[in-house]
Design a protein that fits this description.
single chain; two-stranded antiparallel ribbon; about 65% helix; about 5% strand
Length: about 550
């Protein structure tokens, strides 16, 4: 079997698995977030944190819950790293430096999981399990909660109430993430991923020196790392490491976990707003972009430029031979079109155009299908923009799901789509203009610029993957990327929740013959075009200086 055919068959198997899971998981999540009953374990949690899960919240109160919970998470994780040298199970590792501890705390709480450290050489068992793994669950649940709040904004009328943040958070962890993650971890252990709390072991000689590996609760963290679109690896090699991702099957299974909730939650959206067709329209938009990017990536990486690539069957530099070019391409697209950031190959070693595809995937706002929760609320904001553009074309007040899109709504949507590009381009400009940050670049020219651009794009879009050629463990990059991650995560949530509150206060508008049908293929095409055009106009000059210049050279 040729490598191209193998890649295509893996893609088809992945699509089939996602299609089978779509309806049951999407329906189940809709029941989770619309049920008025609380599980016993949930009641214990509410009592422990002093929350009343039945109290409805308007958007300012919901936002305060999100920000307060996340701020406590940043502080706790920062202190846990700073005290690591005094904790049991630290494997002899010292406390993390202040700038790196801030960067890591901001990274995992913001669901970015950017890592400027070597996991197996810096973090002990307590920090990994009680700190990083816990944030993998709760940061993902925060994203789902905000998405559900926006969906309620569309579904409700004449009220500003969006549900209860604490209830949404706890249900997301207890009823959705934990059960699936447990099953996924068992699958990974059965297929060879490690799960233990062993210490550091010498495994032999390597290039004249001693090679050592430490164990860890890897399979359980790998499961939620992918399922929650987190991406932080237990080891520096991330999902290219055989302890995290042993076989071609586990590689495909991990891609499945990455895409499972972001695709399935579109059905949850359709059920909650009373029209599954609306969910299918959003799903079709996501799938169109994801398949297009995957096909383009496989084409660029399988293209034979010279005898070395031709003999190898594709661009194999930086890719695991046990996965191949096809599976690595699918993984790279899936991890950058979501907010995952896990890697089974090194994006810096992709072809010039291939690296540009990973960059563009993040620049879309990671909405195809995007992160857990964040992908849905991101694409719904783009849907509002698309409806507004269509309204301008026909001279009619735009409507979406029975809600009028007025000046307030479009201003909030515009602020949402502008904040992340502003963070990326401003931080990149400063890093290129100042003399010190450029010293961290491994490469010069267009590829070196792409390293910097990729870092801030990954941070501000809460992705977490890296080009792997940039030394980001400096005070400048730890601090600025940390700020980009926090601002890129929580500022957009302000606009999303404000938009949800504004929509929930409206009374529904009856559908007429002139209403734009947003559940038809025509609207799907309009939404795809809006996403591509807005991103292209925003980022094209930066892409032209980096990956496009390199790829066309």
């Amino acid at each position: 079997m040729g490598p191209v055919l193998a890649g295509v068959l893996q893609l088809l198997a992945l699509i089939a698995a996602l299609a089978l899971a779509y309806k049951p998981l999407g329906t189940y999540m809709a029941k989770v977030y619309t049920s008025d009953k609380h599980w016993r374990v949930e009641k214990w949690i509410y009592k422990g944190i002093g929350a009343n899960p039945d109290t409805e919240m308007r958007w300012p109160a919901y936002l305060r819950g999100v920000l307060a919970f996340s701020a406590v998470g940043v502080l706790f994780l920062y202190l846990l790293q700073r005290l690591q040298g005094h904790l049991p199970g630290s494997l002899g590792f010292a406390a993390i430096d202040p700038d790196q501890a801030f960067n890591t705390a901001a990274s995992f709480v913001s669901n970015t999981n950017w890592q400027s450290y070597y996991g197996e050489q810096a973090m002990g068992h307590v920090v990994q399990t009680a700190g990083l793994a816990v944030q993998n669950f709760v940061s993902a649940a925060v994203g789902i909660a905000v998405a559900v709040a926006l969906v309620r904004g569309f579904a409700r009328s004449r009220t500003g109430e969006l549900g209860n943040f604490w209830s949404d958070l706890v249900r997301g962890v207890v009823r959705v993430l934990v059960p699936i993650a447990v099953v996924a971890a068992l699958v990974l252990v059965a297929c060879g991923a490690i799960q233990n709390f062993s210490g550091i072991h010498e495994v032999g000689q390597f290039m004249g020196g001693t090679q050592e590996w430490n164990g860890g609760a890897v399979a359980s963290q790998e499961a939620i790392k992918e399922l929650g679109t987190n991406g932080g690896g237990y080891f520096n090699a991330n999902s290219a490491h055989p302890f995290e991702n042993p076989t071609p099957f586990t590689n495909l299974f991990e891609i499945f976990l990455i895409l499972l909730i972001p695709f399935s939650i579109t059905r949850t959206f359709g059920i909650m707003v009373g029209s599954v067709k609306q969910g299918y329209a959003i799903l079709a938009t996501m799938v169109t972009i994801w398949l297009g990017f995957t096909a383009l990536m496989m084409w660029t990486e399988f293209a034979h430029h010279g005898p070395a690539f031709q003999a190898a069957g594709g661009a194999y530099e930086g890719k695991e031979v046990r996965f191949g070019v096809g599976a690595s391409s699918i993984f790279a697209v899936s991890t950058t079109l979501t907010s995952t950031g896990a890697v089974d190959s090194f994006h810096s070693s992709f072809t010039g155009l291939g690296g540009g595809i990973t960059l563009l995937g993040m620049m879309l706002g990671e909405i195809a299908p995007g992160g857990v929760g964040s992908g849905l609320y991101g694409i719904l904001v783009m849907a509002v923009i698309a409806v507004f553009i269509a309204g301008l074309m026909v001279g009619r007040t735009p409507e979406y799901l029975g809600k009028k899109i007025g000046s307030r709504e479009i201003k909030l949507a515009a602020c949402y789509i502008l904040i992340t590009p502003a963070l990326v381009l401003v931080f990149t400009a400063f890093a290129m203009a100042l003399p010190t940050p450029a010293n961290s670049m491994t490469n010069s020219g267009a590829h070196g610029f792409s390293e910097i651009l990729y870092a801030y794009t990954s941070g501000a879009n809460n992705n977490g993957s890296a080009f792997a050629g940039l030394n980001a463990d400096t005070q400048w990059f730890n601090t600025t990327i940390g700020l980009a991650m926090l601002l890129g995560r929580f500022l957009p949530m302000v606009f999303v929740l404000a938009l949800a509150g504004s929509l929930a206060e409206q009374k529904p508008v009856p559908e007429t013959a002139g209403t734009l049908r947003t559940d038809k293929p025509l609207y799907t095409g309009l939404l795809v075009g809006t996403i591509i055009i807005i991103t292209g106009l925003t980022y094209f000059p930066a892409l032209a200086l980096g990956p496009l210049a390199e790829g066309l050279a």
